[in-house]
Amino acid sequence: MSVAVRRTAYGLGAAASVFLAATVLSPSPADAAAPTSITSTVKSKYFTGGYTTITCPSGYVGTGGGVGADSTQMYVVLTEPTRNSAGRPNGWKGWVQRTNGAYGSGTIYVVCTR
After folding, report:
1. If you average pLDDT over residues 35-61, what whole number do you get?
2. Keyword set for this entry (predicted)?
3. CA-wise closest residue to 76 among 56, 57, 92
4. CA distances (Å), 87 to each of 35, 84, 95, 114, in order?
5. Residues 58-71: what's their mean pLDDT?
6. How far is CA 4 from the centre of its chain?
7. Which residues pair with 101 in a beta bridge?
8. Is the pLDDT confidence value at 52 over 90?
9. CA nearest 54: which of 35, 80, 77, 31?
10. Contact 97, 50 (CB under 8 A)
11. Which pLDDT band holds residue 79 (cuts at 50, 70, 90)?
12. DSSP 3-state helix, strand, coil percentages of the chain (rounded to 5)?
């Protein structure tokens, strides 16, 4: 799979996560104390050097994310949420490595909701 196709697939997956988060987190009519709207955003950035993080905007909580490697000669070593000092997810971190042990490159995504 080409890099452009892979990036598009990851982007579509992240967009689907936003839709699902908005659908699942939408308050029911019986829940009067729940917020009336949910705002979600997907952030992404390309990185080199193997390891990177991406952070949600202020006031948002990270609800998902992921990392994609640039080629089949690379693999994802780490992909997990980052947390603030209160323990709430506020971003995503990832590490990509080449099969020869050198640092890899790729794209990292985070889905943020408030």
Report:
1. 91
2. Signal
3. 92
4. 22, 5, 21, 16
5. 95
6. 18
7. none
8. yes
9. 80
10. yes
11. very high
12. 20, 45, 35
Q: How far apart are CA 82 and CA 53, in angstroms?
A: 8
The reported pLDDT for the residue numbered 34 is 59
Biggest alpha carbon distance in the chain?
Answer: 56
Strand partners, 76: 96
The residue behind tokens 């952070």 is 55
**In this structure, which amino acid lies at residue 59?**
G
In three-state secondary structure terms, 5 is helix
User: How far is residue 50's CA from residue 8's CA, in Å, rounded to a whole number?
Assistant: 21
* Amino acid, single-letter form, for residue 44: S
Q: Centre a 10 Å sphere on the Cβ of residue 94 and count the other Cβ atoms it contains.
A: 26
pLDDT above 80 for 9: no
Q: What residue has token string 């947390």?
A: 83
Q: How far are the Cα atoms of 25, 46, 49, 81 from residue 72, in angstroms, in the given order?
A: 36, 17, 17, 24
